[in-house]
Amino acid sequence: MLGLAKRIGARFLLTSTSEVYGDPLEHPQKETYWGNVNPIGERSCYDEGKRTAETLAMDYHRGAGVEVRIARIFNTYGPRMCLDDGRVVSNFVAQAIRKQPLTVYGDGKQTRSFQYVSDLVDGLYALMESEHVGPFNLGNPGEFTMLELAEVVKETIDSSATIEFRPNTADDPHMRKPDISKAKELLNWEPKVSLREGLPLMVSDFQNRILNEDEGKGV
């Protein structure tokens, strides 16, 4: 794709990830932070794949003059996500709707930041329309532990939902929170939709699809 962008003079958008920071020793994470990543762990193919993609994009930018734009996307949620994609927000929402326990890995004290999809789209658009290469953190600085997220999901869907603790996954980052001051200053962007505003929009979409799925099974 970078070769194609070079040949036709296109502007190239790389949707990178907050996972380039690994299990960060800096909090919140700024774009200048190089990260703390295990190169041979279970999550490494994703973490290092995105880091390598950033490297290639910058090589093409410096060496061949390709106009690249790099966005480091933090956890994003919204309607039309896959019901069973394994992401924590879709997991919790689907489980609560199906009257299943919410599965929390480890002690549930690890933190994440959740941005609504429309905020991300606005950020990507602002980045592509700008003259700045990046990288830019695109995320919502509101920080929640997994247990806090589970409580918000319970409040929104079913207050009687239970929580089931399971052993933590390997190399699971303890903290994740973007410093978005660079995007605020250079892109004039910041997220507008809070978790408590965005989650019900996702929930109504999930409820419709899970209901249709159950009807298809004759439930």
Automatic annotation (TrEMBL):
Residues 5-200 form the NAD(P)-binding domain. GO terms for molecular function: NAD+ binding; UDP-glucuronate decarboxylase activity. It comes from the Eukaryota. GO terms for cellular component: cytoplasm. Pathway: Nucleotide-sugar biosynthesis; UDP-alpha-D-xylose biosynthesis; UDP-alpha-D-xylose from UDP-alpha-D-glucuronate: step 1/1. Its cofactor is NAD(+). Its EC number is 4.1.1.35. It is an enzyme of class 4 (lyase). Keywords: Decarboxylase, Lyase, NAD. Pfam families: GDP_Man_Dehyd. One of its GO terms (biological process) is UDP-D-xylose biosynthetic process. Belongs to the NAD(P)-dependent epimerase/dehydratase family. UDP-glucuronic acid decarboxylase subfamily. Catalyzes the NAD-dependent decarboxylation of UDP-glucuronic acid to UDP-xylose. Necessary for the biosynthesis of the core tetrasaccharide in glycosaminoglycan biosynthesis. This is UDP-glucuronate decarboxylase. It comes from Castanea mollissima.
